[in-house]
Task: inverse folding
């Protein structure tokens, strides 16, 4: 029987465990999952407060990435999947203290409709002129990676980086557009630039080629689980073998010994044929550094960023006073700590009763680091102060909750894919080791689920 250790009980590790479960039942595999904390799910955590469903970590996942919804269906949660309320989808950007809606036809940060963009006060005339010129941008190939900011600036100028690229990406990666690898984060843009030159023309061409879906409503942009993301965790955990799950079991090191893997947690060391490390890259670096200092260095080089979310519940009056739409983004040039806020009651209406407004405020990367030392109360007053400046919101919240996530998000710096290639070569001399999680080939919940599932596939196929 093959013995496999999974390290980390976030969604990546749980997806790996679920993939191993049927092999365990068939008697072919024995697995054990080590989780350092007293609970499973990692950053997926949901609280019910005053009738509101408050997400401490992710609140949903991108519908176009199928692995999370497929996983939910496999678990029998198909009827619990809910879509975002896209009929009311509107996102604002704070520009010189005013909330300006994103114009129609903007795909990520690429304008595909002339009039709404031309009349939007979101961009200055010089940026609008660059957008028009961008349509004539010639194809351009690269043999080198560069930052997202550098590619976007080449096409649309620095204002586009500041007002859109950077806030959109910091909301996802917790990092800054100036540091993120365009090849790892926006590979589609690199390919569009290589083939078409202009991103605007490339997207229009892609749209024309899309299958005709006349009469069919477009799928929602975001999907979630009815009772919150933790419902997914609870459901997976119910399907796993209880004795295979070790809580309060922080792994200190994994070492290669006699062609097997020795996993040390607390005072105990156990030996396995294979190990799946499903931790943030920084944590993976620590436990692997003795076995492979080289791999440890590469992992440490990926790095991880921290984030803070603050959930605030308000009464009916506030709900009426807030603007329609999903929420707003705050460019760094506005001088605030807040990066984004979601009006949850609009995005997923059944997450708050009709007489409640639910706000989810997000800080990440350097803005989270700056305010990290503050107490929860001080954080709430800081965010209330910024909400007052942005929304004129002075009301006392009915409840507030602060959630801190230290070093949990992988940072895909320039050269990330080359780093992954080097790491793959280093892993070849460490048979039976598979890495999963958000530090490698995708940061969102769907990619993490896929990473856990693929780690199992590769191990069982003897490919690692
Ligand atoms: C605030 C926030 C909002 C997000 N929003 C979204 C969103 O809306 N949509 C989306 O798709 N994605 C979102 N993400 C990203 C996504 O949620 C994460 O990338 C993903 O859930 C990470 O899962 P994971 O299992 O790889 O890691 P984690 O969830 O970090 O799990 C790792 C687990 O390993 C444990 N651990 C750590 N060290 C050890 C050790 N030495 N031994 C044993 N166990 C250890 C930890 O306690 C933890 O439980 C968000 C992330 C955050 C933090």
Result:
């Amino acid at each position: 029987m093959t013995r496999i250790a999974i390290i980390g009980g976030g969604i990546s590790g749980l997806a790996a465990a679920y993939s191993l479960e049927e092999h365990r039942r068939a008697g072919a595999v024995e697995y054990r999952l080590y989780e350092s904390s007293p609970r499973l799910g990692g950053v997926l955590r949901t609280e019910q407060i005053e009738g509101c469903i408050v997400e401490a970590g992710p609140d949903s996942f991108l519908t176009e990435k199928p692995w999370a919804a497929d996983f939910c269906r496999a678990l029998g949660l198909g009827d619990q999947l809910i879509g975002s309320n896209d009929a009311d989808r509107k996102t604002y950007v704070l520009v010189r203290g005013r909330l300006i809606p994103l114009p129609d036809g903007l795909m990520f940060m690429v304008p595909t409709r002339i009039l709404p963009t031309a009349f939007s006060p979101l961009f200055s005339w010089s940026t609008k002129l660059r957008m028009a010129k961008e349509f004539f941008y010639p194809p351009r190939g690269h043999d080198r990676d560069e930052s997202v900011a550098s590619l976007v600036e080449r096409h649309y100028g620095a204002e586009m980086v500041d007002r859109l690229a950077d806030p959109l990406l910091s909301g996802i990666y917790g990092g800054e557009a100036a540091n993120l690898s365009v090849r790892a984060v926006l590979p589609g843009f690199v390919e569009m630039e290589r083939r078409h030159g202009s991103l605007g023309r490339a997207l229009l061409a892609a749209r024309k080629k899309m299958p005709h879906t006349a009469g069919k409503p477009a799928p929602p942009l975001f999907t979630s689980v009815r009772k919150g993301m933790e419902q997914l965790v609870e459901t997976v955990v119910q399907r796993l073998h209880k004795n295979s799950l070790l809580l309060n079991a922080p792994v200190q090191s994994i070492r290669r010994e006699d062609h097997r893997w020795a996993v040390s947690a607390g005072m105990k060391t156990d030996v396995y044929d294979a190990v799946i490390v499903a931790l943030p890259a920084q944590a993976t670096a620590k436990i692997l550094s003795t076995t492979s200092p080289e791999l440890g260095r590469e992992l440490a080089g990926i790095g991880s960023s921290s984030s803070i979310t603050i959930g605030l519940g308000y009464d009916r009056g506030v709900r009426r006073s807030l603007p329609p739409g999903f929420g707003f983004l705050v460019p760094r040039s506005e001088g605030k700590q807040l990066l984004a806020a979601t009006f949850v009651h609009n995005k997923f209406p059944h997450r708050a009763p009709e007489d409640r407004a639910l706000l989810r405020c997000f800080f990440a990367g350097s803005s989270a680091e700056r305010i990290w030392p503050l107490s929860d109360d001080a954080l709430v007053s800081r965010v209330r102060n910024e909400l007052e400046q942005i929304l004129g919101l002075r009301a006392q919240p009915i409840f507030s909750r602060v959630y801190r996530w230290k070093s949990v998000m992988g940072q895909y710096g320039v050269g990330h894919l080359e780093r992954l290639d080097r790491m793959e070569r280093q892993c070849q001399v460490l048979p039976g080791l598979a890495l999963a999680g958000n530090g490698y080939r995708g940061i969102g919940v769907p990619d993490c689920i896929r990473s856990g599932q693929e780690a199992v596939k590769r191990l069982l196929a003897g490919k690692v």
